[in-house]
């Protein structure tokens, strides 16, 4: 079995060395190659990549083309039966690759497999707020609706004929789009709990806000594209909107906005409390981070609505 590991990278000088070391030192029985697509880095990342030129297949883009395009470029350069994806700010465990490709032995209908993503220890408030946002933790291995793009393997023949959506320029939704479209075509996605990578959080207010806005924006685009609209959590939001309309009728416009804010805060708290059950957050952490999470969740919803107002602003033509 030959497996190709594809790593897209853009301005990750602080993280790329640890990522490469973890991927190049896998306990994998078989042949595997590592393909790195640098998407126009300007921070010195390329200098580090060139140190590994004898151990990796390196492709350099002169201009930034977007994460989906970089992933597709890596796939086209690959020669493996399966293509494993991880991100340049991740660290893989030694048995990551061998565990990630095991599910494909179960059924040929499985075209995508993904593993567990854990958070790298948080050092500030916004890293704590983002704890759990990029994780996928299930109680056991199972068929799934989607898996996380920084810990994903795909049958090469499938992704060559059904590539990542290159309209998604930013690092948001490329994994969800591929999973949803494969399920729409009747294929299966499998989550395996034994394939593990650790992933860094967003560590600043600005980067966290931008990330959640783009997640929300792309979520609406993908829901419409794959005929999943309205889709959870969009469905409950529609019910909430109907409830607020009823409140406006009973309370009048003067009291409406106060009632609306109370309902929205309660709704967000219930959503965040529920998400804590599937993430690594404790109840104490949920309470401490609620203000930040409330802001990010509201920003995600703004992104949902923004797509209808500016449908091409954050997508490639």
Question: Strands, helices and their partners?
Answer:
Blueprint: E1 2-9, H1 16-24, E2 31-39, H2 45-51, E3 57-61, H3 67-77, E4 82-86, E5 90-92, H4 96-100, E6 110-119, H5 125-129, E7 142-143, E8 151-155, H6 156-161, H7 174-184, E9 188-199, H8 205-225, H9 234-251, H10 253-276, H11 283-309
Parallel strand pairs: 1-2, 1-4, 2-3, 6-9
Antiparallel strand pairs: 4-8, 5-9, 6-8, 7-9
Helix pairs in contact: 8-11, 9-10, 10-11
Give the helix tally: 11
Briefly note the structural class of the backbone.
alpha/beta
* Total number of beta strands: 9
Uncertain spans, ≥5 residues at pLDDT below 50? none
Strand content: 15-25%
Q: What is Rg?
A: 20 Å
How do the helices and strands follow one another from N- to C-terminus?
Answer: EHEHEHEEHEHEEHHEHHHH
CATH architecture of the largest domain: Alpha-Beta Complex
Distance between the termini: 38 Å
CATH superfamily of the largest domain: Spore Coat Polysaccharide Biosynthesis Protein SpsA, Chain A
On the 0 to 100 scale, the average pLDDT is 84
Task: Briefly note the CATH topology name of the largest domain.
Answer: Spore Coat Polysaccharide Biosynthesis Protein SpsA, Chain A
CATH class category label of the largest domain: Alpha Beta
**Helicity level, as a percent range?**
40-55%
**Which sheet architecture does the biggest sheet show?**
9 strands, mixed
């Amino acid at each position: 079995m030959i497996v190709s590991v594809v790593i897209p990278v853009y301005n990750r000088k602080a993280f790329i060395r640890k990522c490469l070391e973890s991927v190049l030192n896998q306990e994998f029985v078989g042949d595997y190659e590592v393909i790195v697509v640098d998407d126009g880095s300007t921070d010195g990342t390329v200098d580090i990549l060139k140190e590994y030129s004898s151990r990796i297949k390196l492709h350099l883009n002169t201009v930034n083309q977007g994460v989906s395009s970089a992933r597709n470029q890596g796939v086209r350069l690959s020669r493996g039966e399966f293509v494993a994806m991880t991100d340049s700010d991740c660290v893989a465990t030694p048995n990551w690759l061998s565990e990630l490709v095991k599910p494909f032995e179960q059924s040929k209908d499985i075209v995508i497999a993904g593993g567990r993503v854990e958070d790298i220890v948080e050092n500030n408030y916004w890293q704590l707020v983002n704890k759990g946002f990029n994780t996928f933790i299930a109680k056991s291995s199972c068929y799934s609706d989607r898996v996380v793009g920084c810990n994903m393997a795909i049958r090469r023949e499938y992704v060559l004929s059904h590539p990542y959506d290159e309209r998604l320029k930013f690092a948001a939704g490329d994994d969800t789009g591929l999973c949803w479209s494969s399920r729409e075509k009747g294929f299966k996605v499998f989550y395996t709990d034994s394939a593990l990578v650790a992933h860094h959080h967003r560590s600043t207010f600005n980067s966290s806000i931008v990330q959640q806005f783009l997640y929300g924006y792309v979520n609406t685009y993908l829901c419409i594209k794959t005929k999943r609209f309205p889709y959870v959590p969009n469905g409950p939001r529609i019910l909430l909107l109907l409830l607020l309309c009823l409140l406006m009728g009973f309370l009048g416009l003067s009291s409406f906005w106060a009632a609306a804010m109370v309902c929205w805060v309660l709704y967000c708290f219930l959503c965040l409390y529920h998400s804590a059950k599937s993430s690594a957050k404790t109840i104490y952490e949920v309470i401490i981070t609620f203000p930040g999470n409330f802001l990010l969740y509201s920003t995600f919803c703004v992104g949902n609505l923004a797509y209808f107002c500016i449908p091409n602003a954050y997508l490639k033509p």
